Amino acid sequence: MVQGVGYRYFVQRVAVGLGLAGYAKNLRDGRVEIYAIGAPEALSHLRRELERGPQTASVSSVDEADAAVDGKFAQDFSIEFDR
């Protein structure tokens, strides 16, 4: 559950710094979905940063699942909005 802590922007900043593509978006139920494409080492580093979060956040858990590469998110790392 994320609210008002800048988590998506934190994720975007870290992901761009690691050369990852993908997105971060708030879901309607309060969770954040992160879809990341990149080198395994960079993805592992992102995972560690997701567990830490920005200074204003308290992260209780991070769930991870494999996903197919979606080419429409392969160029940059964006903030998406749940519709």
Overview of the molecule:
With 83 residues, the protein is an alpha+beta fold. The chain has a single domain (7-81), classed as Alpha-Beta Plaits, CATH 3.30.70.100. The chain has 2 helices and 3 strands; from the N terminus they run αββαβ. It has helices at 7-17, 40-52, and strands at 21-26, 32-37, 77-81. Strands 2-1-3 form a 3-stranded mixed sheet, covered by helices on one side. Strand 1 and strand 2 (32-37) form a beta hairpin. It is globular. The model has no long low-confidence stretch (mean pLDDT 91).
Nearest-integer average pLDDT: 91
CATH third-tier fold name: Alpha-Beta Plaits
**H/E series, N to C?**
HEEHE
Describe the sheet with the most strands: 3 strands, mixed
- Count, helices: 2
Which strand order do you get reading across the main beta sheet? 2-1-3
Helical/strand content category: alpha+beta
Give the percentage of residues in beta strands.
15-25%
Quaternary state of this entry equals single chain
Radius of gyration: 12 Å
End-to-end gap: 18 Å
CATH architecture: 2-Layer Sandwich
Low-confidence stretches: none
What percent of residues adopt helix (DSSP H or I)? 25-40%
Q: Into how many domains do the coordinates divide?
A: 1
The first-level CATH class is given as Alpha Beta
Gross morphology? globular
Q: Tally of extended strands?
A: 3
